[in-house]
Each structure stands twice: as structure tokens, then as C-alpha cells.
């Protein structure tokens, strides 16, 4: 692919990849950085793109993997600059509530990361990419009903994981 063609691809999908990462991370700057990394990796790997799914989905899969790598590296630390930029003039309760909400989101993302396939991909594509069941089914070569059933199972597995986590927390 020529640089000009890749530039068109970048312009077409950069906002969607960024929004996807922002939903996952809740952090503007992390999302910006990971978006750039996503397109660098996509440029390098473009020859390996088989066309089994839409380009947007492929890019978001790359972004998801980079985000999970970021989580492993960061060990869930909330960067000080994130706090300073977002909460300089706000009430302490708002900061605490938002940090708790961010921590809960990170726990859920970690739980999703531990789901087996196809559950992980279905949950991410449905909740974060907001793809409909038929689009997800096309990627797996399965029916819409198969996706619905597996999405339901994935939600139940997440619910069980959350319940286990809450039970452990209540025992302490």
C-alpha cells in the first residue's frame, strides 16, 4: 500500500479507533498515544491483513491488544497528570468517585481480557465497537443467533467473575 493510500485509511478510521480506545482507557492522552501506535503497527502489518473482517475491526483488534499490553505495563496506575488535568478545580468527592469508577472499569477490562475466545472478541466488538450481531457473525462465519448465544454466555461469565470478586472482597 502506498503512503497516500495509507493516509486515506488513517483519515477514515483515526477517530473511530481513538473513540474505541477512549472507551477502554478513559484517558485522553493514553488513547492518543495508543491510537498512533495502532496505526504504526497497522502500517507495518498491512501486508498480513487477510480481509477476513472490516478494516475498522482489524484496527480496533490491534488497538485492543495494544491497550492490554499497556495495562500490563502500567499495572493500573492512574497517572498523576491525568488527575491534575481532569480534577484541578473539582471537589474531592468527584475525584474519588471518578477514580473508583475508573478502577471498576479497569477491573472489568481485566476480566474481559481473561475471557476465552470467542467470548472476549464478542464482548469487545459488541460493547466497545458497538457492532451489531450480524456484523460480528460475519467475522466468525457464524449466524446472528450464534453470536447472541455466545454474547449471553460471555455476559454470564463476566457476571460470575464480578460476583466472585465481590465475594472475596466481602470476606476480607
Automatic annotation (TrEMBL):
InterPro entries with a match to the protein in the record: RNA_pol_sigma-70-like (IPR039425), RNA_pol_sigma-70_dom (IPR014284), RNA_pol_sigma70_r2 (IPR007627), RNA_pol_sigma70_r4_t2 (IPR013249), RNA_pol_sigma_r2 (IPR013325), RNA_pol_sigma_r3/r4-like (IPR013324), WH-like_DNA-bd_sf (IPR036388)
GO molecular function: DNA binding; sigma factor activity
Domain spans labelled RNA polymerase sigma factor 70 region 4 type: 106-158
Keyword Phosphoprotein part of the UniProt annotation: no
Record bears the keyword ATP-binding: no
UniProtKB keywords: DNA-binding, Sigma factor, Transcription, Transcription regulation
GO biological process: DNA-templated transcription initiation
Ranges of residues in domain RNA polymerase sigma-70 region: 9-75
Pfam families, sorted: Sigma70_r2, Sigma70_r4_2
Family label: Belongs to the sigma-70 factor family. ECF subfamily.
UniProt cross-references to PANTHER family, sorted A to Z: RNA POLYMERASE ECF-TYPE SIGMA FACTO (PTHR43133), RNA POLYMERASE SIGMA FACTOR HI_1459-RELATED (PTHR43133:SF8)
Protein name according to UniProt: RNA polymerase sigma factor
